[in-house]
Design goal:
Mean pLDDT: 88
Low-confidence stretches: 1-13, 26-38, 357-363, 430-434
Radius of gyration: 24 Å
CATH architecture of the largest domain: 3-Layer(aba) Sandwich
Strand content: 5-15%
Number of helices: 17
Number of strands: 16
CATH class of the largest domain: Alpha Beta
CATH superfamily of the largest domain: Alkaline Phosphatase, subunit A
Distance between the termini: 91 Å
Largest sheet: 10 strands, mixed
Helix content: 25-40%
Strand order of the largest sheet: 7-6-5-4-8-1-9-10-2-11
CATH topology of the largest domain: Alkaline Phosphatase, subunit A
Structural class: alpha/beta
């Protein structure tokens, strides 16, 4: 891969060149789409799910009902080897710029960056304002640019999407939020930070995230398209807290009673049945997956109900995607619209709510005390509904990615490989009817989305972009966009990878692995057979390539005891000292009540004597 940040093209030059490109496009629209065919330029809709597993869609072999996204897949192309970062903000930064997340300052989410990295340009956690976004490039080329949903790339002055090229915006600034109310989902936030067109806004009383985000997208698109539009809809589904309307949840109440082992097998079979993977793969046993049989009947029932909420949340998101498609069809723009759907990372496997039935005798921790203060509950009967809080935990997350290894935050394929669907006549897929609904196994990376979008719009992509346009794949002009010698690197929280050709070099910190491993993803997408010993020359060459990339990008090491979750909480609580004070009062309240009752009883006894 050509290194655009070498001595010949230092970072300052790259940023300057990108801004010059955006400026030229803005003042000279004819230049921006000079090579566009005479036909009408297409609308482009970028749909981003949050924490959706590789096998969570029906078109990827899932049991979850996703007819609207599957409809797009049936008339478009699915990708079986597309990768993103294993955490939200780095992926979103790449989707907005076409550049590596370290290059644009978002090596990790800001909440998880330790103090010993916070000085470095790559580890600011917010998108650098001197690098243009795809919205700015499209805006300069005559597109209306619209955004609704989670941003998480900064909300200080100059950092909001309303200041980064979007004409209309509804944005959530944080890592996540409640799906039913305007309130935070973690104690590190005093409130859920929602903005419309750059100003703080109030959500409606009947708010449900997937519905409202699509409502806003429909409102912004309007009833006629006088100029082409780019709409970015970034869902909260299926990020923690996992919440869904009862009607969607109840469809799946009997679906998961056999447990996560059986689901993982079924998902593996589904990926093979739908042609996403070439065969039914077993995958490695994950150390974070408990035996289903070790759970009590009551625990199994609670876990199965929790996964039903997750499925219902995916189902609800798809339902509202269908509403958006229907609206675009009603205004006569469906045949001229390209849809791009993907997830920002793999399934979420963190344990937030102790992942157990609410009648457990385990001691109550600080987070559980905060949940009570915030009026959250984990009651089984209303799980997923308003005021409920749930996370599916690592075992279900492993099942959601099928036979792949690990999940969100890890550099395993379960954290990095996501579903990607691109559909629309203007994408060229339907030009070759026999290829409609096909699957591409070409290696893809998050930075590829921007040059693809620019290509669809007829806007010449700046040479400095690091991604590769996927249009040759869609138009059956090529089977790959990268040669065997083209590689790209990845780092997040000390987990690392280098992709090159069919091979992947990977380093995961968890479970005492702590060593580099080498896998052939074409033959072994489950990362079960380490080739580092049997292919020492390739192993050494790829390690050297990764190190050169890491040095060039300013990648920093993490401390041996670094823990992403603990860093998020400690940094957040340090910024909210009042929370700890309030929590302390709440924790002491029962003790204080007992002492007051004791004093009252003693005084009453003395009065009687």
């Amino acid at each position: 891969m050509t290194n655009i940040l070498s001595i010949e093209f230092p970072q300052l030059t790259v940023r300057t060149a990108l801004f010059c490109f955006a400026a030229i496009a803005a003042i000279s629209p004819a230049f921006a789409w000079a090579d566009t065919p005479e036909s009408k330029r297409p609308n482009i809709v970028l749909l981003l799910a949050d924490d959706l597993g590789f096998a969570d869609l029906g078109s990827y072999g899932s049991e979850i009902d996703t007819p609207n996204i599957d409809r797009l897949a049936a008339s478009g192309m699915r990708f079986s080897n597309f990768h993103v970062a294993a955490s939200c903000a780095p992926t979103r930064a790449m989707l907005m710029t076409g550049l590596d997340s370290h290059t644009v300052g978002v090596a990790n989410i800001p909440e998880a960056i330790p103090d010993d990295q916070a000085h470095a340009p790559a580890y600011q956690g917010v998108l650098q304002t001197d690098i243009p976004t795809v919205a700015e490039m499209l805006q300069g080329a005559g597109y209306r640019t619209l955004m609704s949903g989670k941003w998480h790339l900064g909300f200080s002055d100059g950092e909001k999407p309303s200041q980064r090229g979007f004409d209309r915006t509804l944005m959530l600034a944080d890592t996540g939020a409640d799906n039913w109310r305007q309130r935070s989902y973690l104690p590190i936030y005093a409130e859920a930070n929602w903005f419309e067109d750059g100003e703080p806004t109030t959500l409606p009383e009947d708010f449900y995230s997937s519905q409202y985000l699509v409502d806003k997208a429909i409102e912004y698109i309007g009833n006629q398209a006088q100029q082409p539009f780019f709409a970015y809809v970034a869902f909260q589904a299926v990020h923690i807290p996992v919440q869904a309307p009862a009607a969607f949840r109840d469809k799946y109440l009997q679906t998961y009673t056999d447990g996560w082992h059986d689901l993982r097998t079924a998902r593996s079979e589904g990926l093979a049945r739908t042609g996403v993977l070439p065969a039914v793969l077993e995958g490695r046993e994950m150390p974070t997956t408990r035996s289903w049989q070790s759970l009590s009947a009551e625990q199994q029932a609670f876990e199965a109900r929790g996964m039903a909420v997750y499925a219902g949340m995916v189902d609800a998101m798809d339902f509202h995607v269908g509403r958006l498609i229907e609206h675009i069809e009603q205004i006569g723009e469906l045949d001229n619209t390209v849809f791009i759907f993907l997830s920002d990372n793999g399934a979420e496997g963190s344990i937030v709510t102790r992942h157990q039935a609410p009648d457990s005798k385990a001691p109550v921790g600080l987070f559980q005390l905060w949940m009570r203060l915030a009026n959250y509950n984990t009651q089984a009967q209303t799980l997923g509904e308003r005021d409920s809080y749930h996370d599916i935990g690592p075992a279900w997350a492993s099942a959601a990615v099928g036979p792949l290894s690990w999940y969100k935050f890890f550099a395993g394929e379960g954290g990095l490989r996501v579903p990607l669907v691109i559909s629309g006549a203007q994408a060229g897929v339907s030009v070759v009817p026999q290829d409609a609904g096909s699957v591409s196994s070409a290696l893809g990376w998050a930075t590829d989305i921007v040059p693809t979008i620019l290509g669809l719009a007829g806007v010449a992509a700046p040479d400095e972009l690091e991604g590769k346009s996927l249009l040759p794949l869609l138009r059956s002009e090529a089977e790959a966009v990268r040669g065997d010698e083209d590689g790209f690197g990845y780092e997040l929280g000390g987990n690392k990878a280098w992709f090159q050709g069919d091979h992947k070099l990977v380093f995961n910190r968890f479970a005492n692995i702590g060593k580099w491993q080498l896998f052939n993803l074409k033959n072994d997408p489950t990362e079960s057979q380490d080739l580092s010993a049997s292919q020492p020359e390739r192993f050494a060459a790829m390690r050297a390539a990764f190190q050169a990339w890491a040095t060039d990008r300013g990648v920093l090491p993490v401390a041996e005891d670094y823990n992403q979750g603990q860093t998020v909480l400690s940094k957040g609580l340090r910024n909210r000292p009042g929370f700890l004070f309030g929590l302390g009062l709440a924790a002491l309240a029962p003790v204080a009540l007992i002492l007051l009752l004791a004093v009252w009883w003693v005084r009453r006894r003395r009065a009687k004597t």
